[in-house]
Design brief:
This protein has about 575 residues and is of the alpha/beta class. The protein contains 18 helices and 15 strands. The longest helix has about 45 residues.
Length: about 575
């Protein structure tokens, strides 16, 4: 919902800021006061094309900023798609600045955006009726969704089944396409996979093998150094030499000396026992060192074999994975793919049977959806026909044109679409004797707005665009038709925020919020201003609309009467 609109330096507007309310917001003012400027400004933040001629004379740039409340609205998903994180409180701010030099600067919640982003987002926020470019109902692609929403639960349930089955159908087609590709490509793929599988299998890799090989290479590469070190340790601890005694002999002598005095004091005997324990431990260590030394044998041939094995593993890692585990996993996938291709003919045959079965099932559901759409279309046509009749378009005819495409393509396949096999378009014949034609072909702005109002009245509960703007809706109507238009707008405003630019008193009287647009001249400058008016001012404005510049007691009384009738209608209809 639109909450606030700020406009600077557009046409006659220097700067205005208005807060828009819920329900029906009416904008009135004398001809030429600048009502169309408000609509042009709203179109600017909806991503519509702008002319630099809109910039106020004497200024080099203009800007529009709109604040919306979108919490709980499906707009949040669209914001994330275009890279804007929604605010927690649901506030959405869209701004656009344009200059005489032709530069455009767009922002969404302060983040730079493109005009196309504004257009995409704007189409979900506001529906403008009166200028064809913005009307959602003029976009034929939206008609099928509107009809389905009107058809409600039955169609939606069928569509859910259809959508799930369509995903499966496309997956099967892709699988067949990948398996039944070009024969030469398949043969090349088979040869390549066979080579990879053989290469990995011949290597007979074992998990952890590379780590163990690196350890062995490290030992063999340093065998002489290790033997020399272990021999030195052995000599120092156990054997000794001509120059000095071994640690073992020295420790044995020390124990003997302690034993010789152990009878003099028992503490020397205890020390001797502890040293004997150390000697026993030293025996074990010396034996281990001797075995390690004797087991090391430098073998250039073995080292060369280890180096070659390590090189092989490194090459395989570069091709198939960073670890032996990854290489073996690649092998499993390659074998599975190889088997799948080898058996592809058999698999393709099975998939083709499944595709045909799924296609027939899809066609069946699409046919059911078509039947339900036709049922919903009949009801929709009747209801919109009644609305058009009440809007004094008694000869108008509304038609939901539904085409069902049961033809197959050159591959003998149905042309399944996301929504089934239908193409849906709303057609209208405004007057007797005129042929049915697309909504976009309606020439009269007044007719178009009333047609849109009739359709919106019926689809109000299923159309999720929160804000509707009606411009030129009162062109060419008066009396009973004008009253019905006013009542329809009031009814729609129960479920949507509505902004309406009007010259009709009947519509203005239904307003929940009434804004008056005025043009003032001073110091050789003309400015347009807009303000929300109170009850007394509203009565005067209604009287002005009824009687022109000269407001009399009669026009004031008339204004008071239709305001009273409007209030009663809103109470009776529950819109108060």
């Amino acid at each position: 919902m639109l909450q606030q609109l700020e406009i600077q330096n557009i046409a006659l507007i220097e700067k205005i800021c208005i807060e828009v309310g819920k329900g029906l917001n009416v904008l009135t003012g004398e001809t030429g006061a600048g009502k169309s400027i408000i609509i042009d400004s709203i179109n600017a933040i909806l991503g519509e094309r702008l002319s630099k001629d809109l910039i106020r004379t004497g200024k080099d740039k203009a800007s529009v900023e709109a604040v919306f409340q979108v919490k709980g609205n499906n707009i949040e998903e669209l914001l994330r798609e275009i890279g804007v994180e929604p605010e927690e409180d649901g506030t959405l701010i869209i701004s656009r600045e344009f200059t005489l030099a032709g530069k455009n600067s767009c922002r969404i919640n302060g983040k730079m955006a493109t005009v196309s982003m504004l257009k995409e987002l704007g189409s979900k926020l506001i529906d403008v009726h009166g200028q064809h470019d913005n009307q959602s109902l003029l976009r034929t692609e939206s008609h099928i969704d509107l009809l389905d929403s009107f058809g409600a639960s039955r169609i939606n349930l069928l569509k859910e089944n259809y959508t799930a089955l369509l995903v499966e159908y496309k997956d099967i087609k892709n699988k067949i396409r990948s398996l039944a590709g070009d024969k030469n490509d398949r043969e090349k793929k088979i040869d390549y996979l066979r080579y990879q599988i053989d290469e990995i299998k011949k290597s007979k890799l074992k998990v952890g093998e590379d780590e163990e090989l690196n350890k062995q290479r490290n030992v063999l590469s340093n065998a002489e150094r290790i033997i020399e070190a272990l021999s030195g340790v052995y000599e120092n601890i156990f054997s000794g030499n001509n120059i000095k005694s071994s640690v073992y002999d020295s420790l044995s002598d020390a124990i003997s000396q302690l034993n010789s005095i152990s009878k003099l004091d028992e503490k020397y005997g205890k020390l001797s026992v502890k040293m004997e324990e150390i000697l026993y431990q030293l025996d074990d260590i010396v034996e281990h060192i001797r075995k390690e030394r004797d087991n090391i044998e430098y073998s250039p041939e073995l080292l060369e074999q280890i180096e070659e094995r390590i090189d092989l593993i490194v090459r395989l890692k570069k091709k198939y994975g960073n670890t032996i585990e990854a290489i073996l996993e690649y092998l499993n996938k390659a074998e599975a793919e190889y088997e799948e291709i080898i058996k592809s003919d058999e698999i393709v045959n099975e998939l083709s049977k499944k595709l045909l079965s799924t296609s027939n099932e899809l066609f069946g559901i699409a046919s059911q959806i078509n039947d339900e759409r036709n049922k919903a279309a009949q009801i929709l046509e009747e209801q919109i026909g009644k609305e058009l009749e009440e809007l004094e378009m008694k000869k108008a005819q509304f038609k939901v044109n539904i085409e069902f495409n049961s033809e197959k393509d050159e591959n003998d396949e149905y042309k399944f679409l996301a929504n089934g096999l239908n193409r849906v378009e709303f057609l209208i014949s405004p007057n007797a004797g005129e042929p049915l034609k697309p909504l976009s072909k309606i020439a009269s702005g007044g007719e178009m707005s009333r047609i849109m109002l009739a359709i919106k009245t019926i689809l109000a509960n299923v159309d999720d665009i929160p804000t509707l703007i009606f411009d030129e809706i009162d062109i060419g109507i008066s009396g009973k038709a004008a009253q019905k238009v006013a009542e329809k707008l009031s009814i729609i405003s129960e479920s949507h925020q509505v902004l309406c630019v009007t010259h009709l008193a009947q519509i203005a009287c239904m307003a929940d919020e009434h804004f008056q647009i005025e043009k003032q001249s001073a110091d050789n400058q003309t400015k347009t201003s807009i303000r929300k008016i109170n009850d007394k001012e509203i009565k005067n404005e209604i009287a002005r609309i009824l009687g022109g510049a000269n407001i009399s007691d009669i026009t004031l009384k008339h204004a008071e009467e239709i305001l009273k009738n409007a209030k009663k209608f809103k109470i009776d209809s529950g819109n108060n």
